[in-house]
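Please check this protein record:
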Amino acid sequence: MKTQLYSFWRSSAAFRVRIALNLKGLDYEVIPIHIVQSGGAQTAGEYAKKNPNRLVPLYTNGSHTIHQSLAIIEYLEEVRSNPPLLPQTAIDRAWVRSVAMDIAMEIHPLNNVRVLRYLMKTMGVSTEAKDTWSHHWMILGLESLEKQLSVDTRVGRFACGDQPGLIDICLVPQIFNALSAKIDMTSYPTLMKIFHQCMTLPAFIDASWEKQIDAEGLNPFTPPQE
């Protein structure tokens, strides 16, 4: 049975897994789950039975299912070791995981669709206030990432060395979100250098928003002109 990934074109978490699958050279079928229309297709029906936390992504392989993007990526790393997404030493792996978690567990959840929907629909927050909330947490996180990566000697062409890995997989979707939110990225030269390097690779390009079968919009990133 073909590996399936339940995904939404703009979901940062699903984007991470698409990149990882592409880097590993694994074949998979994307099954779109629209997380916005009618309150979100992930909240009811067959999908909610498959994934009780009612989020995307969901990875399935035969009778096995895994939710949570970082858990899926760690699984892929264990079953397909090449190319590696984590460095060789324990201390470097811990550092990579910590930076990836800064993105996936500190920045992203505060800007998640269901959080922003709750702010507006339940708390009565205005669109302007919702955007202020979103931008605040995104900028705070980006500032922290820039400070860390701008001084760490492990940073090379990519966030850890000269091959793409777990940090890059988490960073690129977050920068997509920031660009879409019209955040000024000039304060984050290290992050943008890594981002531009990633966006020369087919694994990242093919995982991008506009490349998805359920895409409803364009890529917010415009490649620099030659």
About this structure: The chain has a mean pLDDT of 94.
